[in-house]
Design a protein that fits this description.
This is Reverse transcriptase. By secondary structure, the protein is an all-alpha fold. It contains 10 helices and no strands.
Length: 164
C-alpha cells in the first residue's frame, strides 16, 4: 500500500484526484459497500462533460468556458463547488458532507459515513446526467460547428459505407 501511494505521487496525470486520495488511500481501498459509479468517477477525475476536458483533452469544444454560467473554465471542481446552475443540488450535498467542497474534504466525508457517500453519488448522477443531455443537444443542433459534431465509431462508419 505504501509503495502504491509512492507510485501515485509521481504520476503526471490525474494529480487532482490522486492528491485527494493519497492521504486516505488505505481507507479508500478498504471501503465496503461504497461503489464508484460512472458519473461519480467523472466528477472525481474531471473526465466528463466539462468545458475544460472537452476542449483540452477530447478536443470537442472550442473553449473551456462553462455553458451554464459563462465562467472562463468549466471543470469538475467548478461544477462541484461554484457553478450557480447547481446551487440547489449543492445545498443538499453540503448539508450532508459539510461546506468545504474541495476534493480532499469531500473524499474524507464520503469515507466517513454512508450518508455522505450516497449524497455525493446522488449529486454526481443528477448533475452529470443533465450535463450529458445538454451536450447531446449541442451536438445535434443544426448549426453545430464541425468540432462539436457527434463522432462516429469505426463500426458505424463501416455500416454506413455498406449502405451506400
Amino acid at each position: 500500500m505504501r509503495r502504491w501511494g509512492e507510485d501515485l505521487a509521481v504520476q503526471p496525470y490525474g494529480t487532482r484526484v490522486t492528491a485527494a486520495i493519497r492521504p486516505v488511500l488505505e481507507r479508500w481501498m478498504r471501503r465496503k459497500r461504497k461503489p464508484l459509479t460512472f458519473r461519480l468517477t467523472q466528477i472525481l477525475t474531471g473526465h466528463g462533460c466539462f468545458g475544460d476536458y472537452l476542449c483540452r483533452t477530447a478536443q470537442r469544444e472550442p473553449t473551456t468556458e462553462c455553458h451554464d454560467c459563462g465562467a472562463a473554465v468549466d471543470s469538475a471542481q467548478h461544477t462541484l463547488e461554484v457553478c450557480p446552475r447547481w446551487a440547489v443540488l449543492r445545498q443538499g450535498l453540503t448539508s450532508v458532507v459539510g461546506g468545504d467542497l474541495s476534493l480532499p474534504s469531500v473524499i474524507t466525508a464520503m469515507l466517513g459515513d454512508d450518508e455522505s457517500w450516497k449524497a455525493m453519488v446522488s449529486f454526481c448522477e443528477t448533475v452529470m446526467s443533465q450535463k450529458e443531455a445538454d451536450e447531446r443537444m449541442r451536438e445535434e443542433a443544426a448549426d453545430v460547428a464541425s468540432i462539436r459534431g457527434r463522432r462516429m465509431g469505426v463500426r458505424r462508419r463501416r455500416y454506413l459505407m455498406r449502405l451506400l
